[in-house]
Amino acid sequence: MFRSVVYHRSSLIGEVEIHPKNSNLGTWTREIRISYISHPPSDRCSPLAILHTISTSGVCFMMESKRSADESLLFSVYSACLRENKTAVALVGEEELHLVAMPSRRNIPRHSCFWGYIIGRGLYNSCLAMLNRRCLGIVFDLDETLFVANTMRSLEDKIDGLQRMISCEMDPQRANGMLAVIKRYQDDKSILKQYVDGDQVVENGKVFKTQSEAVPPLFGSHQPLTRPIIRLHEKNIVLTRVNPSIRDTSVIVRLRPAWEDLRNYLTANGRKCFEVYVCTMSERDYALEMWRLLDPECNLINSSELLDRIVSVKSGLRKSLLSVFQAGVCHPKMSLVIDDRLDVWDEKDRSRVLVVPPFAPHFGPQAEAKNDIPVLCAARNMACNVRGIFTRDFDEVLLPRMSEIFYEDEVEYPSVPDVGNYLISKDDTSTLNENKNPLCFDGMADAEVERRLKGANRIGQSILPISDNIDTRAVVPPGLTVITPTAPAVSLTTTQFPNTVVPGKPNGQPVL
């Protein structure tokens, strides 16, 4: 125990005794300066429950007023925080110290008791708003999770790669399967070429001309612009030009079936049940345009927040939730990731990644349409279940227990709700199945548009995940496993999905 003084801004309001709960307290504890009282008040969640959920180190100290002193000013702060469900906040470097007013079993008149928590700046207010609305964060990957996109160059590379394989293939069945895939790539190339050359597409005798779509100006560095767009709704195809003045940046985008169902669920009845973010390894301008095609009305991410919520990870680095939430907008425990790859994520975040089969319309164009539950509908069901269980644990377990705790209690605290607890497979393993097949590509070949814009020349990898009616042996090189996601979603409390092996994914990770 040691003694300290507490200021509210520049006014001394009391002398206190501090009882450290860990040894990492700095010299700032000798003089605590309260900058403000948290606002708004919490209408559904106690500050103690919120901080217990989002703090990584728990209670860092206990603080009480000296019994011999008249601490009327400090007691005023204490009683206001206790009455209004607020905290007293002191800024400590890049972090915030939150003083939580705690009830005492001793009932000493005009005695103030606080627990102290250290968290990142802005995190408390963000998580308070989300927990009051029973809202979680959801982070989407883009390429091969929500769509597949290609330029003329990436289509030509894929066709050339398959043709080289055919020239060496002795099995007629395999060769025929590769020819079927080539035909689908050539169809897309024909559509894209019409768009590049003439700003129109002829499909089934009908002419589709480009429509100018305004791109909302983004704060800071982006000027207003319009892009020539063609939407072929029956084929779930969109044609766009990332740089409207450079035709080589034209892209054909195949949207994954049921994206609209998932998008509508996320904004059902005008109420957000998830705060949406994007984490991709694609180049920034390309990622912004792809997301605009997915959310043209900015219902999921407000246009003023796009630059903060769409995060592009540099090549060679792993994705992480801390990089997505670096501005203190959400806590990793309160977020779910939907991605077709697990190995690109930081190990500490992998338990929160829901792995979906990569979208591969050229290898199995009807595979997802034939499923009883499309992949993105199954992802929607899983997200709904996770949110429901998180909310139940928070409301029915954590909140009642935290309301029973007093300042003097040394108790076993209830476990903190964590999205990762609801996705862990019983067969979880860290072993990665790597796919090193040279034929494979990653949607837009990672930074195909960036290569067009900046002169880079880089092609990434992907996997061949699902098949249609063709013999899978005819398409998939030896050593790769092919799956067709046909199992319907079941209750999260049982086995959500069978332990399906996905090339490039760790065995045992939850897979749709």
TrEMBL record:
PANTHER family: RNA POLYMERASE II C-TERMINAL DOMAIN PHOSPHATASE-LIKE 1, RNA POLYMERASE II CTD PHOSPHATASE. It comes from the Eukaryota. Its EC number is 3.1.3.16. Gene3D superfamilies: HAD superfamily/HAD-like (3.40.50.1000). InterPro entries: Fcp1 (IPR039189), FCP1_dom (IPR004274), HAD-like_sf (IPR036412), HAD_sf (IPR023214). It comes from Platanthera zijinensis. GO terms for molecular function: RNA polymerase II CTD heptapeptide repeat phosphatase activity. It holds the Pfam family NIF. This is protein-serine/threonine phosphatase. SUPFAM superfamilies: HAD-like. Residues 131-379 form the FCP1 homology domain. It is found in: Nucleus. Coiled coil: none annotated. GO terms for cellular component: nucleus. It catalyses: O-phospho-L-seryl-[protein] + H2O = L-seryl-[protein] + phosphate; O-phospho-L-threonyl-[protein] + H2O = L-threonyl-[protein] + phosphate. The lineage of its organism: Eukaryota, Viridiplantae, Streptophyta, Embryophyta, Tracheophyta. Keywords: Hydrolase, Nucleus.
